[in-house]
Design goal:
Blueprint lengths: L2 E4 L1 E3 L4 H9 L5 E3 L8 H4 L2 H8 L3 E4 L16 E4 H10 L5 E5 L27 E5 L4 E5 L6 E7 L3 E6 L35 E7 L4 E4 L4 E6 L3 E8 L3 H24 L1 H16 L19
Parallel strand pairs: 1-11, 2-3
Antiparallel strand pairs: 3-12, 4-5, 6-7, 7-14, 8-13, 9-12, 9-14, 10-11, 10-13
The structure holds 2-oxoglutaric acid and fe (ii) ion.
């Protein structure tokens, strides 16, 4: 059965403790108080963004993003920020704004938060924001640049499920992509038997909490309310940086070009490959009860 442990929540975690207990062992953690002196904590609300930046044009994504074909890895449309926020605040929409560089049009917002001091190597040019409505899902993926991510949650709640990089085969990693085929909230053990042996983490992030996701960690997110997040990313260490660069180049060249040449066949090849790689991790008995298993996750 899939095992999901709770992510640790720590208050007053020192740099030394963070490095020894989380960064070195590649383990996620939630900082409950990293944001305590940030003006953003109370200032950044949907209302604030609507009144201050409502006319900004923003690239909006829906779940078409991961489907094969012409819309693959592309945004669906541009909207006024104000209109996007109004739609997503109402909920039941899969529209999302992600990897949004809010700080290019609004550099003054950088004064409202601080980069963490528990590690080095922050990519200061690109603090990214993510917005979504109640019900929005971020499918299981890892970040292509292999950064360590500090994701701060604002306004509402978000359910997060994480898997370490060592578990990639068991969650049916789609080769040449940063995607996995599974839906961890309703695991289909008949279709994906190796999932029964996977171990990961889960949590529900709240306003003002900061989740540390170590490099190459798989993450899935389900917006339980309208909310948004600020992701601060660190690429400390040459290995992380060169691996990130390699990933970006190989994925874009191979995946994007084969998607253009032959979208269906390329998708089928990747899917088959993911099944082959998961095979060694399937339960050996070969028999696995279906149906009611969902209740135990
Ligand atoms: O919060 C989200 O919507 C997605 C966050 C994410 O994927 C990331 O920070 O890398
Ligand atoms: Fe991500």
């Amino acid at each position: 059965m899939m095992v999901l442990k709770q992510v640790d929540r720590r208050t007053g975690l020192t740099k030394k403790e963070f490095i020894n207990e989380y960064l070195r062992p590649n383990k996620p953690v939630i900082f409950t108080d990293m944001t305590k002196d940030w003006p953003a904590l109370d200032k950044w609300t949907a209302e604030f963004f609507k009144t201050q930046y409502g006319d900004l044009k923003v690239p909006v994504f829906s779940s078409n993003y991961s489907k094969p074909g012409p819309g693959y890895m592309a945004s669906d449309k541009e909207m006024r920020f104000k209109d996007f926020l109004e739609v997503t605040e109402k909920g039941d929409t899969d529209l999302r704004l992600f990897l949004f560089d809010m700080f290019d049009p609004a550099p003054e917002l950088r004064k409202d938060f601080q980069f963490p001091t528990v590690m080095k190597g922050f990519i200061k040019r690109f603090p990214f924001m993510f917005f979504g409505g109640k019900g929005a899902e971020v499918t299981m993926h890892y970040d292509i640049d292999c950064a360590n991510v500090f994701l701060t949650q604002f306004v509402g709640h978000k359910r997060v499920i994480l898997f370490p990089p060592e578990e990639s085969a068991k969650i049916y990693h789609h080769p040449y992509t940063v995607k996995s085929l599974i839906s961890p909230e309703s695991p289909d053990y008949d279709k994906f038997p190796a999932l029964q042996n996977v171990e990961g983490y889960e949590t529900i992030l709240k306003h003002g909490e900061t989740l540390f996701m170590p490099t190459r960690y798989w993450h899935y997110m389900h917006y339980l309310d309208f909310s948004f997040g600020l992701a601060l990313r660190s690429q400390s260490g040459m290995a992380t940086r060169s691996r990130g660069l390699f990933n970006i180049v190989s994925h874009f060249l191979v995946d994007k070009s084969l998607n253009i040449l032959s979208p269906k066949r390329w998708h089928a090849w990747k899917e088959n490959e993911a099944y082959q790689r998961a095979k060694p991790f399937e339960p050996s008995s070969g028999s696995h009860p279906g149906g009611e298993l969902n209740a135990s996750v």
